[in-house]
Records
---
Amino acid sequence: MRIAKEFSDQECLKRLQQDDIQAFDQLFDLYAPELCRFAHGYLKSHADAEDAVQECFLKLWERRQSFDAGILFKAYLYKAAYHTVLKHLRRQRYWVFEECGEETLIEEAGPSQVIEYQELEQFYQVAMAQLPPRRREIFALNRQQGLSYARIAQDLNISVKCVENQMTHALKFLRLYFQAHGMSLGLALLVLAQC
């Protein structure tokens, strides 16, 4: 059963900054299940997904005093979950190298891997160039510079809803573009973020 959102993000922020545990619990109950499903899609482990989500909420609690008034908790939590998933995947990748014997290790960034990365980067840039200029700018501000939707809206003097719409259209186009070329957009973004 989904819990109804009984207060706005601004009211929730105010309560969190007053150390209101009940507000934190309501946020957790509202978003944790869908964030777990999101994280599980990448990590393929319920335990790892739950750890990632708990880490996101722990960071939210620790940083509650530093959020600006325009925060959108759903957007913040999904972005935090995405970065936490990347961190978990990098850690898993590192452990794979740690568990290998010295004789089985190869150079982590050998010539063929560098070429593959460059080809993927070039393919990504070609796809990005096909986005309308404003959409490309918004996508780059969010995914490459890590700005929140609220910050992008403020910087570009547009509504947060406009930013959300542009991001939705950009992701849809890029996903279809990569699929048409036999690739996964999610995988490409992970690889490009790791290198």
---
Amino acid sequence: MSRSTSSPSARGGPVTLAMVARRAGVSPQTVSNALNSPGRLRPETLERVRRAVDEMDYRPSRAAQALRTRSSRLIGYGVQPAPAATAAPVMDRFLHALSQAADEAGHRILLFAAPPGDPTLHGFEDLLGRHEVDGFVLSGTALHDPRQAWLAKRGVPFVGFGRMWSKRQIGDWVDVDGAFGTDAAVEHLVAAGHRRIGFLGWPRGSGVGDDRARGWQRAMRRHALPTRGRRVESVDDVEAASGAVKPLLDAGATAVVAASDMLALGCYQALRERDAAVGRDVAVIGFDDSPTASILSPGLASVAQPLEAVGRECVRLLLARMADADAPPERLLLEPSLVIRDSCPDTGPDPHGPPPPYGA
């Protein structure tokens, strides 16, 4: 017999399945069928039971459901420690969206500690050995990531927030089209009159970083603008980014597209050190639209990821995989949106004038 964990009865205790059965004038087994196998009941009986369930605010316990279905209704998610001064709030927003979508689907997210650095299998085998999760959501996907192949070999459902960044794709994933975002940033800058547009990115070899650099490069070439010497690299740190962007500023860049808001903050610092104004002298666009972007002065224009949609789609794909292990893999690439703020005015250098030589 399953019991509610939230709804008190008239006597002050939890509402039970037997109480609902008495209210509806049916057997406890009929109530169980209404909740778990409604197709077995006549429509009028099903309606009577559902009305009683609603009136008494009955909620079956998750433990009882797990015993019946052999499902924990738990989804595992490994959390890595966030280094200081990173865009951790972005992943916080994703985790909130993921948790909300899972909750609406009757599941819960079970967090476990993952070591810092490259993705590892730490925690996965332990959880599976104790049968505590039905599947996993992976984030921080990278080249040579061992998790997808390991889980697939064992028949464990999973979905990735992020591509695998290799020719061999395994499993379902949802990702944000970073190249689309930086392409849109360049388009906006060109429309505002900029021609000397630099890119401040992460070191090559990062799948996400290379994808964002690819969009900048694609848009620059589409407008016949030179890219050679206009891309610099830095780790996601304000001080490091401030030093890395200086060659672009020394060469006369009028705009900088950054692979993250953290890198864009480094550009802010470098400009202030030389008494130049963000927006007026050099336009800056970041990526991730972190909470910092809107409170900076001037506000940082940035590419916003649709994290709520990512969370919903991750849960949808994972539940679909749990229901049908043999279905073809589904892979979704969602488009981000450009959020314009004062760091990127709508007007810049004369758009009709010839591009000045780089460094002039």
---
Amino acid sequence: MGNPYTQNQFGQFAVLRILDANLDRAREGLRVVEEWCRFGLENAELTQECKSLRQELATWHTAELRSARDTPGDPGTVLTHAGEETRADVQQVVQANICRVEEALRVLEEYGKMHHLEMGSACKHMRYRVYILESKLTSFSLHQKLRRSRLYLVTSPSEKLYEQVEAALRGGLTLVQYRDKEANDQIRWETADKLCQLCHDYEALFIVNDRVDLAIAVHADGVHLGQQDMPFAIARQLLGAQRLIGRSTKNSDEMQQAIQEGADYIGVGPVYETPTKAGRAAVGLDYVRYAVNHATIPWFAIGGIDANNLSEVLAAGGDRVAVVRAIMQAEQPTDITQYLLNQLSKNTETAPSDNTR
């Protein structure tokens, strides 16, 4: 087995190779994430954080570590996994590389303690920074999708629920809320879980009505709360900062409260009378006009809106709408979705910009 001194030298050399390999891995992963933050999200803060982490890692990537590299003799270079061969979308690329960075930093933290007194501690702090970066990336991506969404489908119970939703997704829908007040919890969970996967397959946002626990259980992108639902602060505590929380509002006081609480978006309505909110008087287009001038977060006009009256909502200044029956009861959900999106797109192109867009 050789003498202890030789074994000790070999062990030290192996540690240098481990550190070199994982510094490469972490820096490469960060660069992949940084490019998306820069060119995809166009977010200076997240781009700078990736760059800062890369530069700090570079200070530890010394000539001593680089000289220990032996790529031809590394058995790991020929290993691969089927999951690494394809990426379905940008989110998978970013998530895979964030995980790669976190794993590499854990290795650097442990083996770095053997190499340099401060290296292990430095890599530990960087690992926590990457956890925060991951949360911010998730939050920013969800908010970016929300801001880009103009049409919001709120589902109603239907024997053709999945078919109707998928048809709308094929038409370009990017935001879906699962709403069912009557089904038992087992049915709700099964339905929400399947709808969530369906929406994510189409890179659309998936929101659960009322039920924070259900949203967490199926990994939904957020929850929509009515005025009588769980207190906003409790919902935020349970969901975390990265998920979306929407709020129903029917007057200016409720709007301002939702904004102060930190809602990510609000529903404005019901604009017209609707069986979805049976017994509730319509607020009309005046509240839509109020939202145009006072809402500082994304908002969706909702309540009885369809292809026949959409033009009235657009004329009042609304540029995002939520619908139920217009899609859920449509014979051609794909076609009506495309029509509604086309009308909203035309209106957005001619409307003045505001801070909620």
